[in-house]
Design the sequence.
């Protein structure tokens, strides 16, 4: 059987893709090369406007797979706009490598869209994106955008959709059912799961340090303190729950940080921690008993995967794209309407009063998330490349 050559086009190394690329590179059925279009990101730390600081991940992102950084001549390089990736040599470099298929992450950069258009009809073009229809608003702009996106997706042979909401998005924009391949969003399950005992011990030390006892039930939010994440919802929950044994842990930085701390300064049950890097996150998730993501707009919510691997029940808003796939209502968590304080209060107090149910839901989370794995995704992609293309 011929080894398939897969060229991947993506902007920059991220913690959610690097482990998958390494795993794919180990297959004897596949030869992989990643073309990074944000050349400037190879310097390491990049400024994240959501966190309001430079971020440099503390896990290896470039080891174990073939890659190159393509010259980017954009005047304002970055992922924040269409002209942030202008790579005059990209198509030539990819052609020189002679791929059997192309996998493009995101179309909304000049070079990525140009690649899709150039290679369509020459080699199969696979596409990876996680957009949803959850925040679509009716009107002329929606109609025009849908027409434009139908034109964009004409250059896609197969869309690797991440879940239910993403699938509906692709179908709405002209991708046919037979072009859709389910490759769900995943995290490095093994890294977050092991060593379980060590992580739990460190989490207890963290709880002791910040004044949480073993008997406290801790609701955890971890992410950017920005409007779209709605971190103020945590403070609303704290106000609605008049119990000293229920605590709230907010981990992250961002534009709302000072205001949140000011509003919560009289409530000792609410504790803030700065952004924590990847090596510490398996401990952070275990420092909480329940994880909450109250976002007003979230294409998926990979933090939910991470919390589930750590055997935590989860609470997600209906605007969280991964909710229907990750959360089985009443089994490992709840899905709530944005601003629905009452449902959230009932769930939190129920688990505070029934610790057996808390542990049972945590186990269900850990079991459910196993189907969202890099191993499964690798098998799916390799089967597509070897048997269908």
Sequence:
């Amino acid at each position: 059987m011929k080894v398939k050559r897969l060229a991947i086009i993506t902007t920059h190394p991220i913690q959610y893709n690097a482990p998958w690329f390494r795993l794919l590179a180990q297959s004897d059925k596949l030869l992989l090369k990643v073309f990074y279009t944000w050349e400037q990101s190879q310097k390491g730390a990049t400024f994240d406007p959501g966190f309001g600081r430079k971020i440099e991940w503390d896990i290896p992102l470039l080891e174990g797979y073939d890659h190159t950084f393509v010259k980017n001549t954009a005047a304002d390089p970055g992922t924040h706009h269409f002209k942030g990736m202008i790579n005059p040599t990209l198509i030539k470099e990819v052609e020189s490598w002679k791929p059997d298929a192309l996998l493009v992450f995101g179309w909304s950069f000049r070079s990525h869209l140009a690649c899709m258009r150039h290679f369509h009809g020459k080699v199969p073009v696979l596409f990876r994106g996680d957009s949803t229809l959850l925040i679509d608003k009716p009107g002329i702009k929606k109609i025009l955008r849908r027409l434009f996106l139908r034109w964009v997706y004409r250059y896609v042979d197969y869309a690797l959709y991440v879940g239910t909401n993403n699938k509906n998005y692709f179908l709405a924009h002209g991708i046919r059912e037979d072009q859709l391949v389910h490759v769900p969003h995943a995290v490095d399950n093994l890294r977050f799961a092991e060593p379980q005992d060590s992580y739990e011990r460190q989490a207890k030390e963290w709880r002791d340090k910040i004044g949480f006892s073993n008997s406290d039930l801790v609701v955890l939010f971890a992410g950017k303190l920005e409007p779209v994440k709605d971190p103020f919802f945590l403070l609303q929950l704290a106000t609605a729950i008049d119990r000293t044994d229920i605590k709230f842990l907010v981990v992250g930085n961002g534009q709302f940080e000072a205001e949140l701390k000011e509003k919560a300064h009289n409530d000792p049950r609410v504790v803030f921690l700065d952004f924590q890097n990847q090596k510490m996150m398996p401990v952070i998730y275990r420092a909480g008993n329940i994880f909450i993501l109250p976002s007003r707009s979230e294409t998926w919510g990979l933090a939910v995967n991470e919390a589930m691997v750590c055997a935590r029940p989860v609470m997600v808003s209906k605007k969280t794209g991964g909710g229907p796939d990750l959360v089985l209502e009443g089994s490992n968590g709840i899905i709530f309407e944005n601003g629905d304080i009452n449902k959230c209060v009932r769930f939190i107090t129920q688990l505070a009063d029934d610790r057996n149910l808390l542990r049972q839901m945590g186990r269900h989370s850990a079991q459910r998330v196993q189907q969202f794995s890099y191993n499964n995704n690798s098998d799916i992609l390799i089967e597509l490349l070897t048997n269908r293309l």
The chain has a mean pLDDT of 95. The chain has two domains: 4-186+373-388, 189-371. Residues 196-210 form the longest helix (15 residues).
